[in-house]
């Protein structure tokens, strides 16, 4: 499976050969994507894994749950309708090719 992160500086990082099950935060952090910090280790408490899902992928990715929505509020002004915390998205076959933009840091 592969996913693409578009960094704040416009650089696109495509990571291929991924196995299902890992979180997109882990994928980003393990592959040196700028701006994916994952400070809380993926427990949905820090919002340093904030991404914007590209519109064509929003339906496949789905909406955040209540806990994630509450944490996303920490993002404040940079929150958008397509915001997600990528530690809460597990890679699965339907997401092969997913594109997302890294949100500005807090
Ligand atoms: Fe902390 Fe995602 S890594 S909320």
TrEMBL record:
PROSITE patterns membership: 2FE2S_FER_2 (PS51085), ADX (PS00814)
GO terms, molecular function: 2 iron, 2 sulfur cluster binding; electron transfer activity; metal ion binding
InterPro entries assigned: 2Fe-2S_ferredoxin-like_sf, 2Fe-2S_ferredoxin-type, Adrenodoxin-like, Adrenodoxin_Fe-S_BS, Beta-grasp_dom_sf
Keywords (A to Z) from UniProt: 2Fe-2S, Iron, Iron-sulfur, Metal-binding
GO biological process: P450-containing electron transport chain
Cofactor list: [2Fe-2S] cluster
Domain 2Fe-2S ferredoxin-type: 1-106
Domain of life assignment: Bacteria
Family: Belongs to the adrenodoxin/putidaredoxin family.
PANTHER family per the UniProt record, alphabetical: FERREDOXIN-2, MITOCHONDRIAL, FERREDOXIN/ADRENODOXIN
Name the record gives this protein: 2Fe-2S iron-sulfur cluster binding domain-containing protein
Taxonomic lineage from the root: Bacteria, Pseudomonadati, Pseudomonadota, Gammaproteobacteria, Nevskiales
């Amino acid at each position: 499976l592969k996913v693409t992160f578009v960094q704040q500086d416009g650089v696109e990082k495509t990571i291929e050969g991924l196995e299902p099950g890992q979180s997109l935060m882990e994928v980003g952090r393990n592959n040196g994507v700028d701006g994916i910090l994952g400070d809380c280790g993926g427990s949905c408490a820090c919002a340093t894994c904030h991404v914007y899902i590209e519109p064509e992928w929003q339906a496949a990715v789905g909406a955040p749950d209540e806990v994630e929505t509450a944490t996303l509020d920490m993002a404040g002004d940079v929150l958008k309708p397509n915001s997600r915390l990528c530690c809460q998205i597990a890679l699965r076959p339907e997401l092969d090719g997913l594109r997302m933009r890294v949100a500005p840091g807090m």
